[in-house]
Each structure stands twice: as C-alpha cells, then as structure tokens.
C-alpha cells in the first residue's frame, strides 16, 4: 500500500523517504550498469526533507510559473533525482529500472530538459548554481513570482570559479529566493576534495561573497529542516546550506570510502545495500503546493521600429546593433545582459530604453551566459553581449545551453584584427569556429548597419542559440532601410554575365571585396561580390551558382582559417556537389597592434590581397 | 641629468618616480591616440614603490631564472608598464613616444612576450593573476628558486571566477612567493565597479580563500612600502595587497571621473596634465638585484621508453596516453596537470611515477591551463588533461596562451558520442573546432594505443599548443609497436589499385571505417581506409592522392560537422586543387544516453552509415 507523505509528515517518515530514495538510487544505477549511487546516497536526506516540506511544486503541472525550481548542479546524482521523480509519482519503478541511461529514453545519465521537471541540462560542474542565479533573478525581477530556487551542489564543484561568480551575483542582487545546498561529502572523483570536511572554510567563503551560510549535519533531518525553513523565510538574503555528509551514506560497504565514485554497486552488493537500507518502500510525496498556476503571459504583438540608416553614411555594425536592440526591447520578453562593456558593444542603448530588463553582470562572462540561460528557462529572450574574444570565456556554458536546447541571442563585438591598436588579446579570431560548432546555432555577420539592425531584430524570432558578430569600426551603409535579410540568405552586390570570379566576404572583408572588385574592374576583370551575412545556415544556392558561373571564388575572412567562413563555403559547395577553385584568405599569423588598414593588409585579407588572389586564380 | 633611484632612495624620490610614470603614461597614450592613461595613473605609486624597492630584477638579463616576475593582469595599463620599462632604461623615450600601439612595433596595446620583460600576454581580464599562481608554483616547487611573483590586478577583473580559482590555489599551495596587488580605483570601463571602494569586502574574500589581505591607501607610499615589505617577507603566506586608489590620480581633470576609461587625453589636456604632474623628469631606476643569474638547466637527453602494445589487444587510447605520459616523465622538464579526473584521463599514471611534478588543480579547468602556462613560462613542458568537453571551460585561456606563444600539450578524453551512457553533457563534440582554430596548434586524434602512445611522446617535442584527443572505450591495437606516426602524416590501412572510394576516419570512426570496408568488400566494392590521426596539420598529399585515385571520399567524425575533420579534409583538398565527391558524416543532432554502438549508429557515423554513404557516392 502506498503511503503519501507531505509537509506535515514527521521526520521519522521523512527518514523512510530518504531511505527509499537511497534504495532506488542503488537499484537504478545497478540496473543500468553505470551511474553515481554514492553521490546520490550522501544527498538523500537533504532532498527528502526538501521535497516533503519545502519545495513548493506541483509535479503534475511543471509549467506552473509560480512553482519553485529544483536544479541538480551535481547532475551526476541523477539516480537520486530520478528516485525523487518516482517518489513524486511522475516516473514509475519500471521506467526507473528499465530505461535509466538507456538509449532512446529520457532518464539520461545526467538530467536534461527532455524531462518536464528538469529546467536545464547539468553535468558540467559549477554550472547549475550559476543558472539558478539567473532563474532566481528572472522569477523575482521579471516574472514577479514568489518562486524559490533550490540548487543542489557537489563539494567538488566549489573549486570552479563560476560558482563564485554565481554567489557574488546572488549576494549583490540580494536574492532571498535563492538557496544552494552544498553536499559536502568529502570525496571527489579521484580522491578527497580540496577542502574535505572543512565546512567552516566553505562558510567563510560563502559569507564573504554576500550570502548567508548555514552549516549543518546533512544527515540530521531536524537540522536540515530548520536550515531550509530559515532559507525559505528569507526576505532578501541568499542562503547556502553547507551540509556535512557522508558519501555512500547508509551503505556500510561504500560509505566514506574512496574508489566508489561513479560506480554502480555490483548486484550482490546492491542486494546487501538494499537490505541494509531497510528494503524497498512504496512511499509517495505530495509536498507543499505553489500558488494557483499562472499562465505565462502571452506577449502582445508589438511593433518593432528598427533604426534606419542612410546608404553611404559610415556607421559601425555594433552601433546599429545597439539601436536595434533597444528597439527590439519593445517586446516585453526581451532582456539584455552585459559584462561591463555596454559602451563598447552598444548594449547600453537597451539599458537606457529598458533599464528594468537590463542586467549588468560586470566582468563575469560565464555568469552572464548562465543568467541568460536562467532567464530563457523562465520564458524570456535574452541578448547577451561582450567582445567576441571574451565569449570564449563562456564556451562551456554556451555548449551546455545547446544541450539544454535554450533559445538565446549572443552578440560578439570587436571581431577580428580589424579592431586595430588594442592588439591580439582583444581580437575575436576564433569565435566563428566556436559558434558554428554549437549544436543548432545560427551565425550571422553583417557588413553594414542596415543588415546589422535587421538581423538583430530577426534574432528575436529564431530558435536555439543565435550569434551576431559585429565590427568595431564604422563602414559605409550598403543597403536601403527596407532591404530584407533572411537567415540563410546572402546579398550579391556586384554581378554580371561575364563574371570571372566571385569575391565572398562578410563584415569588414565585404568592404575589402568591394574595393577589390573595383580594382579588378580596372584590369578588365569582372568580379561578382557576395555578402555572406548568414554564415550558418549558409546560402548554398548562391555559392553553388557562383561556382558554376564564375568557376573561381575568393573567400576572405577576418578570422583564423579553421572553422570560419572559408570552411563554411567549402562545406556548402561540397554538399551541393559544386566545384570551384577557392582561394581562402584568413588570419594565419599572430597580429600585433596597428591601424585597421595595416592589420588587414598584414593578415592578407585586404582588398589588395583579395584582388591578387583573384588574379592568381585567373592565371 | 639622469638621477638613478634604487632601494635606498627615499619616498620623496619615489614619489618623483611615480610622477614620471604618470607623465609618461599620459604622453605615450596621447601620442598613440589610444590607450588607458587613467588606469595607469591609479597604479603608478604602487609600481614606483615596487620597482624601486622590492622587485628583484635585472632588466638587462630578463632570462635570469632567479629574478622576480612582474605580471600586469590589468594589461590595459600598458602605458604604465612601458613607462616603467623606460624608467628601467630598457626602452627609450623615442620608442615610447613613437611606437606605442603602432604597427610592426613591440610596445603593443596590451603587453605580449615579444617584449623580453613580459612573461606572457595579458588583456583578457582575470588571467594574469591565474598565470602568476602557475609561475609561483614553478619557481618554488620545480625550479627551486627564490623568485617572487608580483601581479598587478584591476578591481574590475575581481568579478571573474578565474581570480578565485587562482587565489584558492595560491592559498592551498601556501605560495609565500606570490603577491597580488589590486588597484581598487573604483571605476570600470562603463561605470563604477561592483564593489567600488569597499576594500574590506575584497579583504574578506581574499582571506576566506586562504590568502593574507593587506588593505592600504594605494597613494600612501609609506603604507605601500610596508605592505610590500610584509609580502616579501612572507614565508608561506600568499599576500593580496588591496590598494584603494583614485583612477586618473594626479590629473584633476580626470581624477575619479567616470567616462575616461580607455581614452587618451587630448593634446591640450595632456599638456595641462603633464604640467600638473610637475613636468617631465629623467629618473632611472635600479632596484634590488636578484641572485647571480642561473642558466636554465639543460635537460640531459633521456631515453623515453614508451609503452608497447600487441596488435589485436583491446586498449583505450586514453589508457595508452596515461602510460606514455608516465614514460615521457623521464624528461625532467615534463610536468602534468589534472582537474580531478586523473583516473579517467589516466594522467594518474604520471602521478604515480612522478608525484613531484604532478599538479592537482581539482575541478578548475581555467586554473589548470593557467598553471600550465605559468610553468611553460618557467621552461617546463606541461601536459594538461581533462575531458574534451570540459576543455571548453578554459577556451579563453587556451586562446591567450597562443597569443603568448606558449608551448604546452593538452589532452582531452571522452571525446564524442562514443562515451555512451553518461550523455551529452560529458561528450566532447566541439573540441576539434576549438583546438583547430587555436593559432599555431597541432591537433592529433589517435585510433589505437600504439599511435596514442607515439603521439603522446611526440608532443614533448612540438612547439606551440598541441592537442591529443582520446577515446573512452577500448579498441583493437592496429599498429606494431615500432610503427612511426609523424605529425602531419596519416596511415593508409587498406588500399589497392581498384579502390573506388576512400573511407577517412580518426579515433573511434577509424574502426567503423574498417568495418565498413569489410562490408563493402562483401559487395565487391574496394574501399581504401585512411587513419587521419593528424588532424592539424593534415596529410594533404595522401588525401589528394585518394581523391585522384578513388574520386570518392567518406569522412566520418565523432564531432559536430563544423570545424572538425570533415572541414579539415575539404580545406586540404581545396588547397591542393583536388576534387572529390565527399560524403561528410558527423554528429548533427543532440545525442542522449545509450551504448556506444547505439549512439554511433544514431549519429550516423557507424560502419553501417559509412558503407551506405560509400554506396550512395558510387551510385
């Protein structure tokens, strides 16, 4: 017979629940032949108290925006999370025992949002806590709901810098709706953790970063309950519960023993473990319920009035981005995030227009992306911006956002050697490779203000992770304000029946291609010029036609030769079975300081080099 | 007449030196038309005291391993650094005034090691302090020299998580030879910093992370001197001097005023500033000298005995890597760094053999790379290892290491969907794109134990950043132990005069290619099989010959389609003017959990799909 526990259940019942979570964690991982039972056993008491008494969540309507959020930053403790799902009655024992970690099923090795009760994918440590800060911010300051965010962290992950970026922001924003629970079980994957059971050291760090630390014995249910009550009663103080626990707790053969990380118990050990834990139980939990479900507000259709630019005026694409971003802000679901460079990226235009939806994360790119992801989870459309070079700082967060199938827009400014005197540390020359390789991404690289503004607006309706690459300097506006720029398209700026070569550029190199075409024309060489503003997806049709009609292509990019525009073009031609002689000009050496013109020329991507490459192709 | 200051100069003279540094910072940036004078003015007093009284450095022999190290983590304060070089007599006024930030010259916008007094490039904030921890570790624990490391940080960069990874390690390793000086000038690029002048908040954080904090008025020369004296006298306590300063100090028109970050003073303002600062001076500095120069020890030629494997045995490439790494450790300059996954990467084999040169950074991939870079600066050859997926966490550090022209070896294990049940968070499917796009990198991806061991050994003699991609599972050993694997080469495992198609793989897909060739042979289709173990540089000759002789290529990679092996092959063929029909099989959808076989097949990169692709190419 099933017994249902709730907020009024006494601690002896909750102990039984914890034991059930342990039993099911052991059983599930043993049945799968892989997984992390010992990392689950340490946190079972914490989670039993949380789900019975504190987590305000209706498991049957996970979309309820007023419900709390539970994030497993230690995603490898998925056996515990899935055992909780079973206790909640949304996953049955058969699913747990026969599908965990198996192909084609949703109970994956680490949690992902293919499960309706999972907000986002974890498993890269130090990330769940960072996303949780973004969710807490979104709940309090955007959705204005009373939801709390509970995040379970491992102790090993506390050495990730991203954890401290997160707690810094939790403290700064006074996120009283944020509670992290650190499962200090002392043992990492390959040995003792850095701080082992020095819970006071954790507490000092947490307090220094502006959060309240509550140190407890993580197996003392009463102490845990009191700590979570204190956390939940918080007005504006973020709380970190530092819980001293034992890895493998409850199973004497593995408890507090090194060498059992990420290993399922063999079947005979699992049987003994289940027996030691008191055998299987059939407890269900119905914890505290959130307020009446609130539907997500349907954003009213709003007219976005993008900025207009006059052909021939000199305007930087980053300037156009900023103005367009401010315009896109007419949509109430759009938010902007900055890493203290808003006056360079021009995201500050959004800040001026919509300060209530502008989030300054200071120089903490990982947390900027994590906050964006958290806000996306809550239904908002983030635009996160910094220098293209510094987006590499958040690569792992962007990668994981793709696993979470998050929709967000990124903008990287100051791309390429074009930036000039600041030198190579500030030059984004790897960002196209990074962003193209993100699963399901869209990569855009406008050459003028009109297209930059149009693509910035278009990003608000794209699914997945989209990336806009902008340029520091001002260049002539090429397109009328009413021109359209479909994603996956391109613009052919020069063409004729006698074209002998096609010059392909984007961003600054498009302007160099235009200048090169002029020089080639002086030599009597007709050159087609293609603005490849959509790098992914790329306009295969136009490239194939150019290959067929001109036979020769020069591709020039302000980026390293690997993974950027040149290889995108080669892939497109290959996929269409098209052949052409392609000269690929890219940044192949370490640049220094200089003027834009000097650096483009030194990198071999200036008009001079483009024209020379065309002449060489034509023999 | 030139006056030379030294350790015995009184503070009034050092004040004059500080003013000279300010004057030259203003003059240099105004002459260049760009740069960060106000960020230089705030730190001039700190650096004047340091260079006159504490920095034990012989400017004429920067290679002296016994000398101190000075790192500008706030690399944008390059005017101040270069003004110090002028005061040291190694850069003259003409160079400072006519070459700073100009093309083809060494005084770049942010410091790089093209300057002999600069250990490594900075300008991506939060990195210099992390590298400094690595240098301090190398000096104390590897070189066994008494050098101190002094690193100047900006206050804005203290929000980067990497800073706290660094201070955590400084504290853990009790690096008494490490001193960070935080220039708390309250103003960032676009407004006040997060903590403004809350020096006590910085101090609390620093102390919580195990370092000693000394809070001073950064313009009180006596206080600064005492703090640096305390730091220098440290036995085993790392010190962080939290210096309250004024941005633009000494120039009333800009002092403590927002809106002057990264802006040179216009000429008229610069003139007034120089006048207010007391005009130009001609001071030289000869600070405390380090011990007699010690030549770097020339490593004796050592015999490395790589592990040997028997053809047909099943051995994982990561296992072979670990054994080979332990063997390479016979070289005394080789060090290994781990991010708490040494039992997965098998770097632990090195730990067992050479514990004194094994560095556990726990789960802090940014600091792992930063420590590796710091050790490389000190003449060591680091091997830094974690999961391929988690190397993305350190992308910005790897990028900057390339700007610093560092030599180091990286190994990323658990590549691709091959890993199986753990799911997408643990799968490296973007790492080839990331690592190929690193300037000057070498990218290697062995398919068997013999080649994995050989390439691991080869990496110890490669310049620049090299990357070895390894696989989780065990696969048959393909090559005799005496086989050689030149970087830039490949192995053709199957070939004949009648080959109709070439199957190109690396890592796990090479084994799938071999199986596919068997199936095709059953259909009477002769397939060549190429093991493309060297992804960058790639074996263009072999690929070109295959294109010419077989006309059809199938490239299969356990990686996203962008930036990986497929595009490397297309680039190689294009560069050689070779044409072929190329079927490109790669991971194009989000994987889940499952067995290796299930996931390879679901991703379309299994033998079945490779054989099908070949048949389709052949019509």
Structural summary, described in words:
2 copies of one chain form a homodimer. With 619 residues, chain A is α/β, with parallel strands linked by helices. Chain A has 3 domains: 3-285, Thiamin diphosphate (ThDP)-binding fold, Pyr/PP domains (Rossmann fold); 314-476, Thiamin diphosphate (ThDP)-binding fold, Pyr/PP domains (Rossmann fold), CATH 3.40.50.970; 491-617, 3-Layer(aba) Sandwich (Rossmann fold), CATH 3.40.50. Helix content of chain A is 38%, strand content 16%. The first copy, chain A, contains 23 helices and 21 strands. In chain A, the strands form 5 sheets. Chain A has a 7-stranded mixed β-sheet with strand order 10-9-11-12-14-13-19, with helices on both faces. A 5-stranded parallel β-sheet of chain A has the order 2-3-4-6-5, sandwiched between helices. In chain A, helix 1 runs antiparallel to helix 10 (267-276) and helix 20 crosses helix 21 (565-575). The radius of gyration of chain A is 27 Å and the shape is elongated. The relative contact order of chain A is 0.09. The mean pLDDT of chain A is 97. At the A-B interface, helix 7, helix 8, helix 12, helix 16 and helix 17 of A face helix 7, helix 8, helix 12, helix 16 and helix 17 of B.
